[in-house]
Design brief:
By secondary structure, the protein is mainly β. The chain is about 5% helix and about 40% strand. The structure holds CU-O-CU linkage. It is found in: Secreted, Extracellular space, Apoplast.
Length: about 525
């Protein structure tokens, strides 16, 4: 493969949205940031130079990082952050993946504005397993806050309560036309009639799952999280933070302007939601600017049946060329109960603080990186006694248990290299059931089942899809339900697992696996790069 060089200057940039201007953290002054493109097999070198007052680190979300865990990016998990005035070169090779992914800051809430697309083309001469599109477009869905996002989360942490929601959703950084803001229009997608386009849709939002729709057009899903799927048609795409979806769009209407809409999907009752739909315009060539735009009605925020139908339609392509390498025997059977809790807090307004947990553990971030602690055998940083099952079984989706308090710790789960894992992610109604997009670093996994209510270990596995389960890196665990995933621990290192709703990660809905290589030479993690930042 080729070597691709990128330079990311992390700089502040004054940016105007919703009629007001504020300085935001950006890469190279762009919001969203620059696209990283590579072909399968290429090596990517990104030099990140930190010119801002915050510590920074960048994560290449969904890149496997086989043996290169040092380049994964989550601060204090695989590296110490890049301090102001410092730089670090992320160096990784793209192996066995093709499609769309995203990169984003992986520290504080900086990913609100520090994010961009990763486009992985197939190897030269290798076609897509679907008709070659006439053109491609990247659509990054996100959020805009009028206030400074770091202030939003810091205030919430002080009060112990939930943070404010964003002021608008965005498509490629734009909420859509805002009345009375002269310079602001929505993003424009120019198309020619009678062609097929590929849209690379990315959800880079901090805190919301989204519906995505285009008026008058049906979309064909062909890939998610840089893995090919069996093509299927849908009016609405459902996409959680951290997920990516490639769709084909046939411009069969010939003329006109059609609204493109991104709106929230959040089916729990208690939570605040940013209800502002982001809009863009699909604009057929030659259509007069005076032609009215054909509108679309986004699904209501609690349209769970639409989401369920969408998720159940996702299947891996599982062709001869792209087989689903699903583990059929399982070494580690894990059940992670995920949710929110309440811990006592003397300084908080209500005497308690909202926390989040997995198996009743609220994860505590270390002050040195876990990967370094593992690689150099530094004691006292973490323990490897993370519970593989909830310490107390309860009716996860029934009434609240009386004790909502959690334990805390920097506890990891140890997996021998190449072990096979089945992990059931069970949402709980500790405070309220919620959708949780769970992301695993370092691996793709297969989604063998999902359901509502409590996972039933006797009955539910009988219904698992062991034939063509979708392969991905982020799974939207249904509100008040469960998802079952399988993966092979074929990547040595320390790998973060967390809710990709930033508020839940901040509250502690996270843990890490340590995958131990034993001694085998090609199974082992490469040594750390010499410029790896220090804490
Ligand atoms: Cu996209 Cu750990 O995150």
């Amino acid at each position: 493969g080729m070597i691709r060089h990128y330079k990311f200057n992390v700089v502040m940039k004054n940016t105007t949205r919703l009629c007001s201007t504020k300085p935001i953290v950006t890469v190279n002054g762009e919001f969203p940031g620059p696209t990283v493109s590579a072909r399968e097999g290429d090596t990517v070198l990104v030099k990140v130079v930190n010119h801002v007052k915050y510590n920074i680190s960048i994560h290449w979300h969904g890149i496997r990082q086989l043996r290169t865990g040092w380049a994964d990016g989550p601060a204090y998990i695989t590296q110490c952050p890049i301090q102001p005035g410092q730089s670090f070169v992320y160096n990784f090779t793209v192996t066995g993946q093709r499609g769309t992914l995203l990169w984003h800051a992986h520290i504080l809430w900086l990913r609100a504005t520090v994010h961009g697309a990763i486009v992985i083309l197939p190897k030269r001469g290798v076609p897509y397993p679907f008709p070659t599109p006439h053109k491609e477009a990247i659509l990054i869905l996100g959020e805009w806050w009028k206030s400074d996002v770091e202030e939003v989360i810091n205030e919430a942490l002080q009060s112990g309560m939930a943070p404010n929601v964003s002021d608008a959703h965005t498509i490629n950084g734009h909420p859509g036309p805002v009345s009375r803001c002269y310079s602001e229009s929505g993003f424009n997608i120019p198309v020619k009639p009678g062609k097929t386009y590929m849209l690379r849709i990315i959800n880079a939002a901090l805190n919301e799952e989204l519906f995505f729709k285009i008026a008058g057009h049906t979309l064909t899903v062909v890939e998610v999280d840089a893995t090919y799927t069996k093509p299927f048609k849908t009016d609405t795409v459902v996409i959680a933070p951290g997920q990516t979806t490639n769709v084909l769009l046939t411009t069969n209407l010939g003329t006109g302007k059609y609204l493109v809409a991104a709106s929230p999907f959040m089916d729990s009752m208690a939570i605040f939601v940013d209800n502002v739909t982001a809009t863009a315009t699909l604009h057929y060539e030659g259509t007069l600017s005076t032609t009215p735009t054909t509108l679309t009605v986004p699904p209501p925020r609690n349209a769970t049946p639409i989401a369920t139908t969408f998720m159940n339609s996702l299947r891996s392509l599982n062709s001869k060329k792209y087989p689903a390498k699903l583990p059929l025997t399982i070494d580690h059977q894990l059940l992670f109960a995920i949710g929110l809790g309440l811990n006592p807090c003397a300084t908080c307004a209500r005497g308690a603080r909202v926390v989040a947990d997995i198996n009743n553990v609220t994860f505590v971030m270390p002050t040195v990186s876990l990967l370094q602690a593992h690689f150099f055998n530094i004691g006292g940083v973490f323990t490897d006694d993370f519970p593989g099952n909830p310490p107390i079984a309860f009716d996860y989706t029934g009434t609240q248990p009386t004790n909502l308090a959690t334990m805390s710790g920097t506890r990891l789960y140890r997996l021998p290299y190449n072990a096979t894992v089945q992990l059931v992610l069970q949402d709980t109604g500790m405070i309220t059931p919620e959708n949780h997009p769970i992301h695993l670093h370092g691996f793709n996994f297969f989604v063998v089942g999902r359901g509502v209510g409590n996972f039933n270990p006797e009955k539910d596995p009988k219904k698992f899809n062991l034939l063509d389960p979708v392969e991905r890196n982020t799974i939207a665990v249904p509100s008040g339900g469960w998802s079952a995933i399988r993966f092979r621990a074929d990547n040595p290192g320390v790998w973060f697992l967390h809710c990709h709703l930033e508020v839940h990660t901040t509250w502690g809905l996270k843990m890490a696996f340590v995958v131990d290589n034993g001694k085998g030479a090609d199974e082992s993690l490469l040594p750390p790069p010499s410029d790896l930042p220090k804490c």
